[in-house]
Amino acid sequence: MHRLCSLLGMPQHRFASLHVVGTNGKSSVAQMIAALLEEHGVSSGACLSPHLLRWSERVRIRGAQIGAAEFAGAVDRTAQAADVVNRTLEEEGDAVTQFEASTAAAFVALAAARVQAGVIEAGLGGRLDATNVIPSTVTVLTSVGLDHTEWLGETELEIAAEKLAVLRDQSALVIGQVSDEVSALAERTAAELGARLVRAAADPGPEIVLRAPGSFQRRNFALAVAAAEAFMGELDPGAVRQVAAEVVIPGRLQVVSDQPATVLDAAHNPDGARALAEALPEVAAGRPVFACLAMLADKDAEEMVRALAPALAHAVCTELPAAALQGAGRPGSRSRPATQLAAACEAAGLSAEAVPEPGQALSRAQQLASAARGVALVAGSHYLLAQWTRRRAQSSSR
Known about the structure:
Largest sheet: 8 strands, mixed
Mean pLDDT: 93
Number of helices: 15
Structural class: alpha/beta
Low-confidence stretches: none
Radius of gyration: 21 Å
Strand order of the largest sheet: 4-3-2-5-1-6-7-8
Oligomer: single chain
Order of helices and strands: HEHEEEHHEEHHEHEHHEEHEHEHHEHEH
Shape: globular
Distance between the termini: 42 Å
């Protein structure tokens, strides 16, 4: 990444940056921070991951998805630089990765748009993540949970250390609702680097009416407010309320249809599943919830299902096509077989069925919800949400 960014003229140094790391909530918090900065007159952009339909969804400029021509230009420049870098690498088979290229292209795009601030979401961990080349003035730790343990460590403290390794000297560290042990580690890490530690509130306050549903989004918004304050000082209460009333976070407890009521949520690990289960009653309003679920093979499906089971009436379990994962930024990833996922549901006391083809599974969940005047939920993986979104877009174009 250092070589690639150097060839591109160090675009990440042409705007101030805030780095968002954590297990869950990163995309929501990043988009909320960017919206708060923009509302306060700071021209802002965001680098997010993953995407649903288009890679350009990963780059937002002044509150909107980057234009196709601008994104193509940034990708072309990055591809040319990546070819040069690849010729200099000594390890056989080593090359600029898909995520490294997409991250560098986002930096190029943000610099070209001349934003004053970029809110950069880490992809995986922090210390070795492709985003860890930015001179961030604020680092935000959203949460710490046991996810990606094969790369980040087997305990919360090991994972937290990987994420906190992005903190810069004399900057600010804003932390969300974390365990006492992680909080203590954050305090020590900040002290070692002369960084200011800010502990965000658990709720933004009763005066905040948040458009994004779910108690977990209130926690995320409180964290975003603390991060924006750490970056620019005291915020205008009226502007904060305005952002709260308008901000929409795609794929997070997002109601996308009412015939039947259909909700998308990107919960893809146990902590995310627990947050979803906690928030579902708010949108279900007493109606039964029929879930279409798919999960990657490296996720703790059993723990996720145990968390979700009390909130669901039935699960339709499906699989993610390998080709779809390859094209969406997860090359080499595998889906958990639908039959295995259904067995995990049954073991958790949740009735379930296996429908391996995702389009059929999505239809089945909606049929069940419609017949019972209930709610259809699509969850378990960002990539299942992508399948639903693509299917809906195709239906609309006919």
